[in-house]
Amino acid sequence: MKTAIIACIVASLGVSATTIGCRSKTVSQEPDEVNAVIDKAIEAGADIPPSKRNMVVRMLRLSETDLILGLRTFAELSGGRYPADLETRSTLRQVDAERLGSSRPDLSESRGKQMLMDIFFASAFYDKLKREKRDVQYYGDTVGRQDAGKVLMRWTESKDRYKVVLGDLAIRTLSSQQLAELTMWP
């Protein structure tokens, strides 16, 4: 992938999404309410061209699905590895430095861009959890696709409940006791 594509993604999504409130955890997941938020942002002066509206909607509705899709895509392009760090800038730098996707001549330009967007949205979901102070932990530097039973990422759901993504990208909801038992094994 080219640095210009990464810059385009960050520029087109970062500014627009931040302007309309993706940093707020009060944005509803309901399509009509998300569209209403975008409409209000446009009325207030946000520059969201119609061609970017779907990307902004996706940014406002980030979910575990985006995380799994992006991690799966990164692993596909990297031969089974996950990003060493899931912070957005670090992840996109890693994509660029490793030229992920460039060794795949079977990928069309549009499919390559879509895959890069999927990776971006995975990192954006991680960033969202951090902003929400959900005690998110990511272990991509030591856990790969072959580590099916190891914790790749985890975050708090409630006082005693955690969401856990395993190395095989299975998602589980665990109590703190179950999480402790899972992480005590090598």
3D structure, described in words:
The chain is an alpha+beta fold. The chain has 7 helices and 4 strands; from the N terminus they run ααααααββββα. Helix content is 51%, strand content 11%. It has a 4-stranded antiparallel β-sheet with strand order 1-2-3-4, with helices on one face. The N and C termini lie far apart (35 Å). Mean pLDDT is 79; it is low at 1-28.
How would you concisely characterize the structure shown here?
The chain has 186 residues and is an alpha+beta fold. It is built from seven helices and four strands; from the N terminus they run ααααααββββα.
What gyration radius follows from the Cα positions, in whole Å? 17 Å
Strand order of the largest sheet: 1-2-3-4
Q: What can be said about the biggest beta sheet?
A: 4 strands, antiparallel
Estimated structural class: alpha+beta
How is the topology of this model organized?
Layout: H1 3-19, H2 31-43, H3 53-60, H4 64-78, H5 88-97, H6 109-131, E1 137-138, E2 151-158, E3 161-166, E4 171-175, H7 176-183
Antiparallel strand pairs: 1-2, 2-3, 3-4
Helix pairs in contact: 2-3, 4-6, 5-6
List key phrases describing it:
186 residues, alpha+beta, 4 strands, flat
